[in-house]
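Example record for the data management plan.
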Amino acid sequence: MKTRIILILGFLSMTFLTAQAKVFSPGDTIAKVIVVPNVFSPEKEGGEKLFHISTLQNIMVKSMKLEIFNRWGQIVFKTDNLNQGWDGNYKGTKMESGVYMYMLTGEIYSPTNSSGTIKIDRKGTFTLIR
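Corresponding structural encoding:
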C-alpha cells in the first residue's frame, strides 16, 4: 500500500460535520460554540433577566473574561465567571436603554489543537431594552 502526500498551496476551504449533524467551518467554529445574545431586556416579562454568555453543550471552558462597556467606553460590568450574568445595573443604578459593547477573552479546551486550547477574542454589541 502506497502512502500519498498531497501538498496544497493557497487557500483551502474545509467544513466539519459533528456527530449531531451540525456543520462548522474554521471561520465560524468559535462563533457557533460561544453564544452571545444581541438583545437583553431585564425587566420585560418573559425576557432575559441577565445578559450572559453561554457555550454549546460539551464545550469545556479553561478561562473566560467578559467586560461590558457603555457608549462612553466606561466598564459597567466585568466577570471571570460565565455563570454570572449582568443585570443591567451599574453601582446600584439602572443603566439606560441603548447599545452596549462587550469584550470576551479566554480559552476553551480543544482536543484537536496542538496546544490543547483555542483562544477566544470576541468583541461585539448588544442592545439593552428597558
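Summary line stored alongside the record: DSSP finds one helix and eleven strands in the chain.
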